[in-house]
Design a protein that fits this description.
Layout: H1 2-17, E1 27-30, H2 32-38, H3 40-81, H4 88-149, E2 153-156, H5 178-186, H6 193-196
Parallel strand pairs: 1-2
């Protein structure tokens, strides 16, 4: 399989470099990782996701504080039940109260774990949706540039092969139009609040 992929890449590169009877092929390079990172909507999405993670952690911490309080109450009931001066009825009453607290503690522990898992899944799903939307927006701008620039082939230099080797080992600097894509994407970025004042 790896040989087939390498052969395909070599064949594609050979086509790019071979002169054709009609015209030379126009090849471009972009760094999709850099474009993604420098798009203002990516940064906005990161801020939004970080705020949601902080809020989820706060909610989880509140649940864990409640759980800790119940555990402390269980320990307190155990200590009270060990007092020798208590009657059997009083010890039985404390034991029943402790068992009820243990049931409550187990349910709270289960709820906290389910809350954590549900929040992690929801945040991951949201990250994937946001990422997909941002990549789609980037691809619209890249495709517009490819059409207007008359490119026949465009490579992503941030790509890595199965052997963990960069797919593009070398390219001339003038072939890379990533900065033009970043500028086009950020053309309508809202001004920072401090600059507006």
């Amino acid at each position: 399989m790896r040989k087939l992929i390498v052969s395909s890449l070599l064949a594609t590169a050979a086509l790019c470099l071979a002169p054709t009877a009609h015209a030379q092929m126009k090849v471009g390079i972009v760094d999709m990782s850099d474009i993604f990172k420098n798009y203002y909507k990516t940064k906005d999405a990161e801020v939004q996701m970080n705020a949601q993670q902080v809020e989820a952690k706060k909610q989880l911490d509140e649940r864990l504080q409640g759980l800790k309080k119940v555990i402390d109450e269980i320990n307190d009931l155990n200590a009270q039940a060990e007092k020798p001066e208590l009657s059997k009825d009083a010890k039985d009453k404390l034991a029943k109260e402790r068992d009820d607290k243990i049931t409550q503690e187990r349910q709270m522990d289960k709820d906290a774990m389910e809350f954590r898992q549900q929040k992690e899944r929801a945040l991951q799903d949201q990250i994937m949706r946001m990422r997909k939307g941002i990549v789609e927006e980037i691809m619209v701008v890249v495709n517009d540039k490819v059409k207007s620039g008359g490119y026949d082939l465009v490579f992503d230099k941030s790509g890595i092969s199965l052997g963990q080797i960069p797919v593009i080992l070398y390219s001339r600097g003038d072939m890379d139009f990533s900065s033009e894509i970043i500028a086009a994407l950020n053309k309508n970025a809202p001004k920072p609040a401090s600059a507006a004042n």
